[in-house]
Design brief:
about 500 residues; 21 strands; about 25% strand; 16 helices; single chain; globular; five-stranded parallel beta sheet
Length: about 500
């Protein structure tokens, strides 16, 4: 009531000074609407309501507000940023960096003339640094919400109609949030495996793997995808004996095969063991540790593996349970993904979906692009996301980054292409810092020289890839990259040399 009284008082004082012109009246009306927008209540109708405050959801909410739409974001976790910021991308990168620093101190500092009498892991301090990074970033998003006047409701939301969301708030109450357009951005959850119960202590998901209280002597990772290899790298650097069990014949099956083979050799040199074409039959947690019974995927003799901790990293599944999608008739596919058109609209008018809950790569940056494009459509503008041009990165050391088509995909499509490669062993910056493991590989159309795909294995491949992402998005040729002056000495010169090797010949090899 105090706030309402203040607004009325301000309105009265301003009205006494207004002229009788329509322009002044319109200006006054606009200023009041802007003032009240940041204090929207659940009972007021929003232009946009976003269910989920992860990378897709919070970006969509901010963009919608920036486009002048009255916006509310509902988030059940109580902190913004979703899985990515709270228990995914960000904390894992913090631990990857910290563990790499320890590994470098143990294995590389001496060769650079830096000698230490002793080096030890302070795991609580390492975890505290990770938690501090997460906390600062989540609070930062709340600050962005306030700056952009996004209303933030903490609680679990579910549809009661295509324009109404019932929210069980974290404080124990309930409110109904109304919206002309509602975006589902609830992300994904860990995919479970039959017969394996995750307790986040001895059998953990990626969430538990980010919060272990001690370094396990033996760690078994089920699944050789991005997350499993990254978390395996963290604990392997800190002293764990890591074994990766994978049902498929290859690690990271979406990766270019030539790059994948080099990548696996690199991880094996870091003492990571692989059991490919292997099926987990059962898990026994009755003793102090964990016993896994495995057998060849094609069938055969069973083997027992023992570990202190088992990480289940078999992928992720869309999180749509309990949202009331069936109540309002939203269509999903057989794996629970929400079906949308090219404007992110579902079959129910006014209901949209983005990010991990719809088909496409389950990546935070893809979800962000979905969010921006979706609200641009809602605002009457044009949005676009090309999933074939979304980069992917494995944040191990070396990193592996790619965009566009793999050589296997080019062959399958019957494309006529050329390949250019350049090893970091021939890159002066990589040699200077004594970190020269890796390669750049470019595929380009044989007739037009248009770049089809770029794959990089290098210490900072996740940063280097974006020159290639920009090139592919603008249909550039390999010659275009080759003729751009790159600063010397830099790792990015390897991309230039690979481009030269694609359309002509490289200089430094």
């Amino acid at each position: 009531m105090a706030l309402a009284s203040l607004v009325r008082r301000k309105a009265y004082l301003l009205s006494r000074n207004l002229s009788n012109s329509p322009a002044d009246a319109l200006k006054y009306s606009f200023s009041l609407s802007n003032f009240s927008r940041g204090f929207a209540s659940g009972s007021e109708e929003n232009d946009v309501v976003v269910i989920g405050g992860g990378p897709g959801g919070y970006v969509a909410a901010i963009k919608a507000a920036q486009l002048g739409l009255k916006t509310t974001c509902i988030e059940k976790r109580g902190t913004l940023g979703g899985t990515c910021l709270n228990v995914g991308c960000i904390p894992s990168k913090a631990l990857l960096h910290s563990s790499h620093m320890y590994h470098e101190a143990m294995h590389s500092f001496a060769s650079h003339g830096v000698k230490l009498s002793s080096v030890e892991v302070d795991l609580p301090a390492m975890m505290a640094q990770k938690d501090k990074a997460v906390s600062n970033l989540t609070r930062g998003i709340e600050g962005l919400f306030k700056k952009n006047k996004v209303n933030y409701v903490k609680g679990f939301g579910k549809f009661i109609s295509p324009s109404e969301v019932s929210v069980d708030t974290l404080e124990g109450g309930n409110t109904v949030v109304k919206g002309k357009n509602i975006i589902v951005a609830t992300g994904s959850d860990v995919k479970s495996l039959p017969g394996i119960t995750i307790d986040e202590k001895r059998i953990v998901s990626s969430t538990g793997a980010l919060a272990l209280s001690e370094v396990p002597k033996k760690l078994i990772v089920i699944g050789a995808g991005y997350i499993g290899l990254e978390m395996g790298s963290v604990w392997g650097r800190l002293g764990s004996e890591v074994t990766v069990v994978e049902f498929a014949p290859d690690i990271v099956p979406t990766m270019d095969a030539e790059i994948r083979k080099q990548f696996q050799r690199s991880l094996e040199k870091q003492k990571m063991k692989f059991m490919l074409k292997t099926k987990v039959v059962s898990v026994d947690t009755t003793g102090n540790g964990v016993k896994l019974t495995v057998e060849p995927a094609a069938g055969g003799d069973q083997t027992t593996l023992e570990a202190d901790v088992v990480l289940v990293s078999a992928g992720r599944t869309p999180f749509t349970s309990g949202l009331g999608l069936d109540k309002i008739g939203v269509e999903t596919d057989k794996v629970g993904r929400i079906l949308v058109n090219d404007r992110f609209a579902t079959n129910v008018a006014g209901v949209y979906a983005i990010g991990d809950v719809i088909p496409g790569p389950m990546l935070a940056h893809k979800a962000e692009e979905d969010g921006v494009a979706c609200v641009e459509f809602i605002a009457g503008k044009h949005g676009h996301v090309d999933y074939d041009k979304v980069p992917g990165v494995v944040y191990t050391h070396p990193e592996v980054a790619s965009v566009g088509k793999t050589e296997e995909q080019a062959k399958e499509l019957g494309l006529n292409y050329r390949v250019g490669k350049f090893p970091f062993l021939a890159n002066s910056r990589a040699k200077a810092i004594d970190d020269a493991e890796g390669i750049v590989k470019i595929l380009a159309d044989k007739e037009t020289d248009k770049i089809l795909g770029v794959h990089i294995m290098a210490p900072n491949a996740g940063e280097l890839i974006h020159e290639a992402v920009l090139a592919i998005n603008y249909d550039a040729a390999s010659e275009d990259i080759a003729r751009v002056c790159h600063a010397h000495p830099t790792m990015s010169e390897a991309l230039k040399e690979a481009a030269m090797a694609t359309y002509d010949k490289p200089i430094h090899i």
